Amino acid sequence: MRIRFDWFTPNTVKKFLLVISISLLPGAGCSLQETKATDSAQQQNQTVGWIEKGKIAGVEKEVKVKLDTGATTTSINADILEQPGKETESGGMIKFRFSDGDGVKQTFELPIVRWVRIESRQSDYIRRPVVRMKLCVAGQWIEEEVNLADRDDFNYPVLIGRNMLEKGKLVVDSSQTFTKDPSCPAQEAQQ
Fold first, then answer.
1. Within this chain, do residues 40 and 123 fall inside the same structural domain, yes or no?
2. Domain named Retropepsin-like aspartic endopeptidase: which ranges (predicted)?
3. Is 147 exposed, middle or buried, given 0-12, 13-18 or 19+ CB atoms closer than 10 A?
4. Do 103 and 79 lie in a common domain?
């Protein structure tokens, strides 16, 4: 049996390869787009340790912060100095003093955004005031809700919860500590 190759001319081969190349391009483009999207998403997230140094807008020195994916809302150590007579959902000013146990102290007076209900082991629940504050973590200022708590008995005066982790696109590596520079641009703290 003899096979004919007379249709197999250089012109025919070029056309055949051109058709195959064009048909493969859409698939190659989709693959490239998926890779770019994945790379972009990975670049947005920043991995940090479970303990980092950070700053609070209005406080000159750095403080140690614990990054906790189990906490819904960020919490800072606060000694309440003055609060509204009635625990309304929002409104009213609250005056409190932040301290880290190592001599860093700062007094704040901020509007109450809302009250949060925290389950407690000793009693049914505790109501804590929530304010908006700006904290510097991993080189970026993040403004978000912070509940005020007595954290004197805890190792870290600031607990960064999921609200700030998500807003700052921070991913916690529980095997690492002090991985990022806490420096943030000074002008952003004032805004």
1. no
2. 48-181
3. buried
4. yes
Same domain, 8 and 51: no
Assessment of whether the complete model's pTM goes beyond 0.85: no
134 & 169 share domain: yes
103 and 66 in one domain?
yes
Q: Are 75 and 40 found together in one domain?
A: no
Q: Do 117 and 91 fall into the same domain?
A: yes
How open is the CA angle 140-145-151, to the nearest 5 degrees? 95
Strands (E), 20-123: 46-56, 63-67, 74-77, 79-82, 93-99, 105-111, 114-119
Cα separation, 145 vs 150, whole angstroms? 17
Q: Please tell me the distance from the alpha carbon of residue 176 to that of residue 178, in angstroms, as a whole number.
A: 7
Q: Which amino acid is at 93?
A: M
Nearest to 102 by CA among 146, 148, 152: 152
How many domains would you assign to the chain? Answer: 2
Q: pLDDT tens across 52-84, in order? A: 999 999 998 999 999 999 999 999 999 999 887
Indicate the pairing of strand 170-177 with strand 46-56: parallel
The CB-side HSE value for 130 (13 A sphere, CA atoms) comes to: 19
The SS3 of residue 79 is strand
Q: Are residues 28 and 118 in the same domain?
A: no
What is the three-class DSSP state of 152? coil
